[in-house]
DNA sequence: CCCGATTGAGACACCCACGTCTCATTCTGC
DNA sequence: GCAGAATGAGACGTGGGTGTCTCAATCGGG
């Protein structure tokens, strides 16, 4: 069984999303490889987490590109963004909670770049009159991440059907829970 | 310096919300007591986390009571709920992520009771026509927890002003990010 | 004021995960 | 088929956190 670095990272992400305290041995078995091999490719647990960060950043850079955030209205772009992010939602959930631990350190510049793109998207929506201006782009970005993570967990626990993932997030984030009069 | 069990728990919650991997020694120092004393009152780390769960459940039972979830419209009740939950938002953020680790075990019945109350609130709102019926109460409940946690973290990191806590959560959850026509 | 209870500081052993290493086996390219 | 590389399984030492214990100091009620 050849060692596929990216596949190992994906398996690790899938496990660590559910159990962030998983052992290196558990990660290795989840990836179907030996613990020694895991250590050969990732110097240690920190290196593994960093590699997961890099993977996540790469994946979301691609997802953002595919979502064509600059095209159409911001609302349309946001729907595409959630759709593109879905395959990596668990990874996002893991990385968001993991990033809480690096409070003091400087934030990874890759994350800053991604954040900036989402913030710019919300700001564009505000300037075009489609997004409320009383909710800051920074908060909307945080909320987007939070909702994606929450929904990913809810799907994992069976509280939300996987097929409803995009709908639940985009509808709640964009339209809110309140039943508006015009509907 | 007398040992105030509840105060120790609150200090522990404040620290663990930010750094979930904090040492028992760090927790003890954060609470201003010795590690030995901490161990005298909480058999171990697991016992401490359980005590935090109990504290959280107690706090939110009270918060829910104070919010009078059965009075007025569901929307009004939800606003009161967020207001009452704010002082314990960090604790909620910690417990929600911590609960992810107990996937296999049976969920704490206290949480189930709280969940049921929130779900019932959303369901009531749906029945009264104030809440959309295409978003399941279970998802709305998860989203509420997620947004509270996300906002609590955003406040801790300075990305959201503490004074905007209630507004950001209730407005986004109820009204959504989209700028509606009637406004 | 005194005596019991509680606390803080430290010492101690224990345990688990980590990281490294070895070695036989398997895989892969030539 | 062969030689080199890569892998899996396991052994091994280490470190850091945990849990327990002791003992002196402090606190608090009678």
Tell me roughly what share of residues is in helical segments of chain A: 55-70%
Coarse shape of chain A: elongated
Query: Can you count the beta strands of chain A?
Result: 0
In CATH, the homologous superfamily of the largest domain in chain A goes by the name Tetracycline Repressor, domain 2
What oligomeric arrangement do these chains adopt? homodimer
Unreliable residue runs of chain A: none
Key attributes of the depicted protein:
Homeodomain-like_sf (chains A, B), mainly alpha, DNA-binding (chains A, B), Tetracycline Repressor, domain 2, DNA-binding, 2 domains, Tet_transcr_reg_TetR-rel_C_sf (chains A, B), homodimer, 9 helices, transcription (chains A, B), Arc Repressor Mutant, subunit A
Please explain how this structure is put together.
Chains A, B: Residues 23-42 bind DNA. Chains A, B: It comes from Streptomyces amritsarensis. Chains A, B: Keywords: DNA-binding, Transcription, Transcription regulation. Chains A, B: InterPro entries: Homeodomain-like_sf, HTH-type_TetR-like_transc_reg, HTH_TetR, Tet_transcr_reg_TetR-rel_C_sf. Chain A folds into 2 domains: 1-42, Arc Repressor Mutant, subunit A (Orthogonal Bundle), CATH 1.10.10; 53-175, Tetracycline Repressor, domain 2 (Orthogonal Bundle), CATH 1.10.357. In chain A, 68% of the residues lie in helices and 0% in strands. Chain A is built from 9 helices and no strands. The first copy, chain A, has helices at 5-18, 24-30, 35-41, 45-67, 74-85, 89-99, 109-127, 137-156, 165-175. Chains A and B meet through helix 8 and helix 9 of A and helix 8 and helix 9 of B. The structure holds a DNA duplex (30 and 30 nucleotides).
